[in-house]
Amino acid sequence: ITFSNELISRDEGLHRDFACLLYSYLQNKPDVSIVRQIVCEAVEIEKEFVCDALPVSLVGMNKDLMSEYIEFVADHLLGQLGLEKEYNTVNPFEFMELISLQGKTNFFEKRVG
């Protein structure tokens, strides 16, 4: 399951990177306030989902920490789009940084097992 989560995370990261690259090539970008509004609305929807999906706390993970992580990811996305951070939240899950760094290796160089 862990390996699957790493692959999913890497795949989602590639989608995000590609979308940001496409955005950078737009000649007529939407107004910054609209982009920020879209990101902030997405954050609120994600937080609502987390509260429903995690009604009880798990060891090292709860709805508050997940909400912080959602804000952290949103700030990272805004930065990739060339915009200022909205939340200034620190990543509460250091292990997610490790998954991100490991994702830089070639898929076929990783051993199964």
Describe the protein's topology.
Elements: H1 2-25, H2 32-53, H3 63-80, H4 94-102
Helix pairs in contact: 2-3
GO molecular function, one term: oxidoreductase activity
Whole-number count of domains: 1
**Which parts are unreliable, with pLDDT below 50 for 5 consecutive residues or more?**
none
- How many E-type strands? 0
Strand content: under 5%
* Secondary-structure element series: HHHH
Name the CATH superfamily classification.
Ribonucleotide Reductase, subunit A
Mean pLDDT: 85
CATH C-level: Mainly Alpha
Any idea of the CATH topology?
Ribonucleotide Reductase, subunit A
Radius of gyration of CA atoms, rounded to a whole number? 16 Å
- Using the 3D structure, state the CATH architecture: Orthogonal Bundle
The percent range for helix content is 55-70%
Q: Can you tell me the overall shape?
A: globular
Number of continuous helical runs: 4
What about the largest sheet?
A: none
Structural class: mainly alpha
End-to-end Cα distance: 12 Å
